[in-house]
């Protein structure tokens, strides 16, 4: 079964309604994490433990990075698998 959020790292403490996923801007740049519901953005999976560190993403297209990109960042260890 294909997961809806294959790169989820945290339940969002800011809105308590969505998963925080690893994403990046389509144009490129370093991946970050973002809530699927409230659009809260954090620079890293660890930062997303703290709702106070949330910011707002730029108005740009966002997509999922590849599994390879996630592994290169060392962020695969943060992915919740269930
Ligand atoms: Zn949220």
What do these coordinates show?
By secondary structure, this protein is mostly beta strands. Helices cover 9% and strands 23% of the residues. It is built from one helix and five strands; from the N terminus they run E-E-E-E-E-H. Strands 1, 2, 3, 4 and 5 form a five-stranded antiparallel sheet that branches. The longest helix has 7 residues, at 67-73. Bound molecules: zinc ion (ZN). The site of zinc ion has 9 residues, from loops.
Which stretches are poorly predicted, pLDDT < 50 over at least 5 residues?
A: none
Distance between the termini: 12 Å
**Approximately how much beta-strand content do the residues carry?**
15-25%
Largest sheet: 5 strands, antiparallel
SSE arrangement, N to C: EEEEEH
Oligomerization status of the protein chains: single chain
Count of DSSP H/I helices:
1
Q: Quick one: how many beta strands? A: 5
What general form does the structure show?
A: globular
Percentage of helical residues?
A: under 10%
What small ligands are held by the chains?
Answer: zinc ion
Helix-strand category: mainly beta
* Cα-based radius of gyration, to the nearest Å: 12 Å
* Averaged pLDDT: 94
TL;DR?
With 82 residues, the chain is mainly beta.
Topology:
Layout: E1 8-11, E2 19-25, E3 32-35, E4 41-42, E5 62-63, H1 67-73
Antiparallel strand pairs: 1-2, 2-3, 2-5, 3-4
């Amino acid at each position: 079964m294909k997961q809806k959020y294959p790169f989820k790292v945290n339940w969002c403490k800011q809105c308590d309604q969505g998963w925080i996923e690893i994403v990046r801007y389509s144009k490129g740049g370093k991946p970050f994490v973002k809530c699927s519901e409230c659009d809260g953005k954090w620079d890293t999976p660890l930062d997303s433990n703290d709702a106070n560190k949330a910011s707002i993403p730029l108005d740009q297209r966002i997509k999922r990075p590849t599994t390879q990109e996630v592994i290169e960042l060392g962020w695969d260890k943060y992915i919740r698998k269930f």
